[in-house]
Design a protein that fits this description.
The protein is α+β, with helices and mostly antiparallel strands. It has 2 domains: 62 residues, Winged helix-like DNA-binding domain superfamily/Winged helix DNA-binding domain (Arc Repressor Mutant, subunit A, Orthogonal Bundle), CATH 1.10.10.10; 175 residues, Beta-Lactamase (2-Layer Sandwich). A 6-stranded antiparallel sheet has the order 6-5-4-9-8-7, with helices on both faces. A hairpin with a 5-residue loop joins β2 and β3. α6 crosses α8. 30% of the residues are buried.
Length: 258
């Protein structure tokens, strides 16, 4: 039988433009006015205004009545919460994170890696230690930074030219040289985990292991974060081994998306 063709998706301009507005404001650190939104997205101001008003009415955006500037609204929260709470990976990884955090005294997080742009924290277990690092569910970081970034580069299908271009835009406390980082990526591929000792954040050790799909491509990572004085070499390696076991268990339970 001939292969089935993918269903044709007909463009719906109003939906596409509304999504573009939401994405633009999600990337902006400051509220934006009508003119800036319309110019950035190439929209006619009157069209942009209609979309903004509709999104405000649905509480997906909020507008400052004085400045007439827009930001994401509280209506986004239940949508985002539903994604995080109902997704397979967050529900599967939470017990593993609680166990790792309790046994090693680290902040343990589950990270989704949708692309080379960002990684997104989708689950976490906070340590009860007196000194803790602040991270929240929903926090986003550059996908190639720190220990997770080495795992992303090691288990992704993206070309090295694109990875190198993005690498040189990263901000580290103590940035590794490109050649050194490439060797660390190769090591992460061989051993199935990566350890960042003070490169990303001074005095902080970050351990990451990949969660791979059925094709061997990275989809998520499990990450442990602690002070460098807390995670010496032996303890970091022990944590990495246990995290790797947790990642394999989670990967085995994830249902492939058809």
């Amino acid at each position: 039988m001939p292969p089935r063709k993918a269903p044709r998706v007909r463009a719906v301009p109003a939906v596409t433009r509304a999504v573009a507005v939401l994405r633009l404001l999600s990337r902006s650190r400051v509220p934006l006015g009508l003119k800036a939104i319309a110019q950035t997205l190439g929209l006619v101001p009157s069209t942009a205004l209609h979309i903004l008003r509709a999104l405000v009415a649905e509480q997906l955006l909020q507008v400052d009545p004085q400045t007439k500037q827009y930001r994401l609204g509280v209506g986004m929260l239940p949508l985002a919460r539903a994604v995080l709470e109902n997704g397979d990976f967050p529900s599967l990884v939470r017990p593993k994170l609680d166990d790792l955090s309790g046994r090693y005294g680290v902040t343990a997080i589950g990270v989704e890696v949708p692309d080379l742009e960002h990684m997104i924290v989708v689950a976490l277990a906070r340590t009860q230690a007196p000194v803790r690092l602040h991270v929240d569910v929903g926090s986003r970081f550059p996908a190639l930074i720190s220990a997770t970034g080495r795992c992303v580069a090691a288990f992704t299908g993206h070309p090295w030219t694109e990875i190198e271009r993005r690498f040189h835009r990263l901000r580290w406390h103590n940035a590794p040289a490109w050649d050194t980082w490439r060797k660390e990526v190769d090591l992460a591929r061989r051993q199935g985990f990566s350890i960042d000792r003070g490169n990303y954040i001074a005095g902080v050790t970050i351990v990451a292991v990949p969660v791979l799909d059925i094709r061997g491509t990275i989809s998520h990572t499990i990450v442990g974060i602690g002070l460098g004085s807390q995670l010496d070499r032996a303890r970091s390696l022990a944590l990495a081994r246990d995290m790797r076991e947790a990642a394999h268990a989670v990967a085995a339970q994830l249902v492939p998306q058809s």
